[in-house]
Amino acid sequence: MLIKIYGSAIHGVAAQTITIEVNIDTGGVGYHLVGLPDNAIKESSYRISAALKNVGFKIPGKKITINMAPADLRKEGSSYDLSIAIGILAASDQILAENIQDYVIMGELSLDGSLQPIKGVLPIAIQAREEGFKGIILPKQNIREAAVVEGLDVYGAANIKEVIDFFNEGIPIEKVILDIKKEFQEKVNQFPFDFSEVKGQETAKRAMEVAAAGGHNIILIGPPGSGKTMLAKRVPSILPPLTLKEALETTKIHSVAGKIGTETSLMTIRPFRSPHHTISDVALVGGGSYPQPGEISLAHNGVLFLDEMPEFKRTVLEVMRQPLEDREVTISRAKFTINYPASFMLIASMNPSPSGYFPDDPNNTSSIMEMQRYMNKLSGPLLDRIDIHIEIQKVEFEQLTEKRRGEKSEDIRRRVLKAREIQQKRYENLEISYNAQIGPQQIELFCSLDQTSFSLIKQAMDKLNLSARAYDRILKVARTIADLDECENILSQHISEAIQYRSLDREFWNG
């Protein structure tokens, strides 16, 4: 008897429906699995056999042929255990299969018949709804994630016996319905960190506000213990809240990577990723034998924080150049190409020298040559993509022990949102959302200067020995500062502040 049952395969951050055809023939004995399955799927026969035996069923001693179509697409992982097992039971008439084709069935089997969670549930559920399936049957741990998708019945089973009883006797499986909009609104403003906890560092806080308002990449330069990491961790709390569309995009990526917790349905806070400096280039941008999204894709719609940036391998840093520009990563292999989204805000930190201190600090033991060698670990083209460079001094004792709390993230965020609204209105007819994305043509159009501002930037270029690439960056940052002040035109004070945010272009750093 031939039975068709449906599963799903992940390709990039999208899913593709897989038809699992199970044919049982009385003329022979054997178990044949075809359709480009990987080793995890090939080993499923042992898990299925033990699981069925432990719940009172068995694999028939006949010739079983299982085809996973389309046969030219490689299938990976153990998430097909449940669909193959149910297909075998239906094809051997051990269970009824009247409405089995109305469901996408996925899950990994344990030997006792219990179900283990799988990856990529959200894109699988979205694809199932788009293709008109009535529902989806999954391990219980994955149901909140799948319930994000409206218009699809989501059932969560603890073991294969519950699925068998559902088809055989109509015994209902736990069904989940979420009010996703309500849940999203409740959690969208919950943050673990707040800027009010940061003592002192008012200049750095202001730079962070400017960076968040314009979507600018930023690098923090300061000695150990000056609060670089503390500041960076609080940036998501002042960024505009995720829209429902952005939340779904972000959740899909984390779902494919298996980063969604069992109690999580939808990511409501912008992601903050902070990889260790020993990370490989593949782990950062994505890829591998079985391609997975990397850290820059996991930071999509959020923040990627590179702590102690010069300690990262140069090859790792250089692979970020294209994603920073194009806001997506393309992974190419001989037989396929995958695109992962990677629109993130880069925050980097570094010490001013190998010893960790500025040249005028008594603790500094590094020579000028050592400092230059340290700085040369960062290439010009990479720094060219970082708009704001801010030096952070150590916090004085009086500031550290002050009882008064600083400004709350909520208040800073309010100003950031106003500035973003101004930018969205300005660029509504362009494929641009915020100031960091504008190119040379838009700079000429939207960043015009009066005579005073022009003279000021010319003087800064000459006296501070600023590089040519700093000119455009200063104008873009000045445009953001003007938006924060709700000024239509860029004024001299905006240019003056923007010049202060180009530390690494000055003569001292350039040698």
UniProtKB/TrEMBL annotation:
Presence of the UniProt keyword ATP-binding in the record: yes
SUPFAM superfamilies: P-loop containing nucleoside triphosphate hydrolases, Ribosomal protein S5 domain 2-like
Keyword list, A-Z: ATP-binding, Nucleotide-binding
Source domain of life: Bacteria
Family annotation (InterPro entries): AAA+_ATPase, CHLI-like, MCM_dom, Mg_chelat-rel, Mg_chelat-rel_C, Mg_chelatse_chII-like_cat_dom, P-loop_NTPase, Ribosomal_Su5_D2-typ_SF
TM spans (from-to): none
SMART domains in the cross-refs: AAA
Domain AAA+ ATPase, chain residue ranges per copy: 214-396
Coiled coil: none
Family: Belongs to the Mg-chelatase subunits D/I family. ComM subfamily.
Descriptive protein name: YifB family Mg chelatase-like AAA ATPase
Originating organism: Chryseobacterium paridis
